[in-house]
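Minutes, project check-in

Agenda point 3 was the complex the collaborators sent over. CS summarized: three entities, 868 residues total, and the question is how they sit relative to each other. Sequences were read into the notes so everyone works from the same version.
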Amino acid sequence: MAIEVREVNKSFGGTQVLTDINLDIGSGSLSALLGPSGGGKSTLLRVIAGLEQPDSGTVVISGRDATRLRPQQRNVGFVFQHYAAFKHLTVYRNVAFGLEVRRRPKAEIRRRVGELLELVHLEQFAGRYPAQLSGGQRQRMALARALAVEPEVLLLDEPFGALDAQVRKELRAWLRRLHDEVHVTTVFVTHDQEEAMDVADEIVVLAGGRVEQIGSPADVYDHPANSFVMSFLGPVTRLDGELVRPHDIELSAEPAGGTPARVVRVVRLGFEVRVEMRAAGEDVWAQVTREVADRLDLKPGDTVHLRPSAAGRVPEPSGLTRQAPGL
Amino acid sequence: MSAVTATQAPTRARARAGGPHYGTGLGLGVAVLYLSLIVLIPLAAVVWRSARLGPVTFWHAIRQPDAWSALSLTVGASLLVALLNLVMGTLIAWVLVRDRFPGRSIVDTLIDLPFALPTIVAGLVLLALYGVNSPLHLNLAYSRIGVVVALLFVTLPFVVRTVQPVLLELDRDVEQAAQTLGASPATTFRRIVLPNLLPAMLSGAGLAFARAVAEFGSTNLISGNIKFHTEVAAVNIFGRIENDDVAGAAAISTALLVIAFVVLIALDLVRRWGRQHG
Amino acid sequence: MASRYALRAVALLYLALLLVLPVGLIGYRTFQHGLAPFIDAVNSPDARHAFWLTLEVAFWAVLANTVFGIGGAVLLVRHHFPGKRLLSTLIDLPLAVSPVVVGLALILVYGANEPVGGWLQRLGLQVIFSVPGMVLATIFVCLPLVIRAVEPVLLQLGEEQEQAAHTLGASRWQTFLRITLPGIRWALAYGVVLCLARALGEYGAVAVVSGRVVGETQTLTLFVEDSFNNFNQPAAFAAATVLAAIAILTLLVAKLLRPKDSP
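CS then shared the predicted structure for the full assembly.
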């Protein structure tokens, strides 16, 4: 295991931010800490980095108890949401910083910084100051700076949070590729479930200072441990008092044991069609393909019969429920 | 077409009448006249009076032993004061921004006291504590150390007040980034914090130096104004005015004005340099 | 975290020795024998004259600099003209000039032996060694204070509200009174307070141009020096305490008025 977090608790001025956190991050994995803001995910990341001290519990990094180690002794790479660029130093000197304070030979520093700038495609910007870079470039510089010291784990706190949507998408794909090349154990914090599913091998869902579920993106989406995880990870609607994903509702014209519903509105969003209905005094909506909508010839006022499809019948206990250690 | 121009014309005339540019000339004229009558013409008269002496006589005037001694003491003491402020002002700003203790906001308010306190009162209060009847048994009256202490008192706020806002705005993430990269607290301060504070520190120290060179009231009582020992340039000028040596007073005043001018230019350069690297 | 306490201790000790103890001691010395000696000292005819003269000089200087400060700030922020940067630099000049040099400069223009001063003298206006000269010297030393307090707020306020008022038919004067002035009122008050404190406490420049005639051109600061040099320490300490109290009051008022976003 690259990171083992055991029974960590942390509070700020009487507010409990982390409660009994247990977490294992496997070597070489790419994990996302996902949750709503205020859920404690940034604090957990900062506890791992040593930027915050837990009130109780332990943090083990690469088999070494790091709980009482200062950040500079932990050999972690940390990337901040707002880059934390050293404004008075050039891009080259920013990336070289960690190596310089470790008093590595000049030649080695030059070689290593050159490699990293190439890796993040900033080789032609080596002589510039951070103020002369775009947000995406600054974040890539911050990444190169964190990787320069060959950290045992790479921690990223909402790394794309300050960037606009287009750059964000590019950097996501790029982080994924980078991880495939470098293979350093990586943990990043995000509140964007799409980002977590797109990039991570493993997702840790945190809310209210507790781990709600740990699992692969498919696991947490298809087998959510509870209704919170289910609604946080994707769209949900309620059918017969049960939470269902709207794309897991089958519509048919025949009764065949389904719940009858009246169509209120049909919204065509390109390939996908959203059907808003009333069933037994409750609002319910379904996501269907254009073919299905056309075949049923759906119009407001029609009556249809609804039932959950095989894939999403009832959220099954997945075995990957909350705080299962050893994943 | 003609209808359009017809409706536009009055709008434009109205914009000119009510817009911001009307009256610029009048306002500028009044402002320049006010500034000229009170500041520019009198200062020009000082420079003119010493220029009329010619370069040789001017040089002789400021090289008169008592004048030269006063100028040397002033510049030397001011340099020392600027240096001490550089260290203590930064330290105080650091404590005010980064430390938390009861009464911190009172201390923060007190920093400005030397700006609000009349200089003669500053001299008197220092003499009460560090004079002949010092309750601390520390008699600095009529000594050069007394002059330095008086100058430290009146220049205290400069470095504190220039460094404080920069320190407040300094991103804590940046220091934490340095820590995660393996830098010790001392290294982080030296290589990350200090370069960011340096323009503000130098700027504050420059202002303190300029103020110390010009200072009159606070040094007046504690120094005893002993010629060749504790008399500063401003006091020397004052003595010459009292003794009707207006030409000599003008020459030394011009020397002070030149020093002030050089400091102002240096400060501007520091600010530009700070902006480039900030 | 021992280093944190060490830094705190050094900072507080330095401030105590340089600032708090000296100022505190003067208050103690003034009142150590009760209130009566203090009242006697500040109630002497010379002290009372000095007090009223100080107020008179400060009043005219603050008034002049307030008008100039508002006008100058509007000029620098709202208008564009060649030489603007130069004018802005010249406005800061008084801060860099020694008070004694200020006094000398005014004597060299407005002294009775100089062409301009002699001409004014013949018109019956004595400037130097008289109240007008003291007002001029005080205006000089606090000239930048109001304008520099108002300028940033005026800039931040922007021109749009004024333009909106113009489009609604308000005249320039109405716009100024109803829109601009309310927008800058706290900054203006802040600048006026700073200017007033500086004016009440000015010593060097006034010492040069006043001639320091007891009971005639002696302000409070000159009274402090004169009393001290004549071994009348109770009077010197009492007047100094009054001035220090004004200074502390100024600090508190300025702290309340200071724009909240600046430290």
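Noted in discussion: Residues 1-20 of chain B have pLDDT under 50 and may be disordered.
Follow-up: revisit at the next meeting once the mutant set is ready.
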